[in-house]
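I have been asked to look over a protein record a colleague put together. This is what I was given:
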Amino acid sequence: MIDDFLLRNPDGFALAMSDLEDLLIKTSRTFALSIPLLPEPTRREVTVAYLLFRIADTFEDSASWSQEKRIQALSVFSDLLSQQKPEATRRWAGKWAAEVPIDHAGYQELMTEVPYVLDAYFGLGDKARELVRSHTVRTAEGMATFVARTNANGELNLDHLQDLRDYCYIVAGIVGEMLTELFLLDRARLRPIASQLRQRSRLFGEALQLVNILKDSSFDLTEGRAYLPPGVSRAEVLTLARLDLRAASEYVLSLQDAGAENGLVAFNALPVLLAVATLEKVEIEGPGSKIGRPEVYQLVELMNYALDNGLPVISLDEKAGSGMP
């Protein structure tokens, strides 16, 4: 399973099975490890969805680009998802590749490959494509509202805890909702737990986003992003993250108890396990702390052992929180 993938690719990179996976590897280390665990057709659907969300995220994150251009790009991108327009897509992709200020080689390449990604998107089944479209557009529109709040230097400041949660919902909670609906497509065995998954899907995304914000808070400040609101203590955000991780853990265990494919369970379990370990490290060592490769290997081995032996893949303990907020 994933441990074999890691062993073959000690630096998190590999020869891609397809151009989509090549882009995935170049734009995300974590998802490049977890998405290949998914069964088809969910694997392809989630790969395409991730790349679309990454495109939108690149526009939102380009703080040195003008506010007007960022909002326009998010709007145009949403429009391109509604109807296949090859010429317009190529024209806009060329413009974005030339103009969007990006210092990440993978994201830069993704901009040039927007036409290819959209071709793959339009090749998805009707139900999956509509799910991906509606959720991506909601995220792009929400991102535009936050970009509109940036100052002349492109800096975004969140005002209070609910403001932070609203932001997390736009950039991550909607992703959790979309993934849940993709998981439920054509999986009759998951219908009895559909409401449980939907209740926790937003919190799952919020959990992962909060952990990233706590981990990257010092770096984000240098980039003009102050996601931790003034007057809100880190301890309060840590507590919220733990509560959300509890909900995410319950989500994973619901999938496992319902008999979901091991790959689907592993895809969801891995980021939760990594987030719990990262949060513990950040709490002890402060922003910028990361878990090392040996720790990742150990978590993966424990996860695979649990899956292979029918054991709970995640333990609900005090560190993960005590219930849904």
Summary: The first strand starts at residue 156 and ends at 157. Strands lie at 156-157, 225-226.
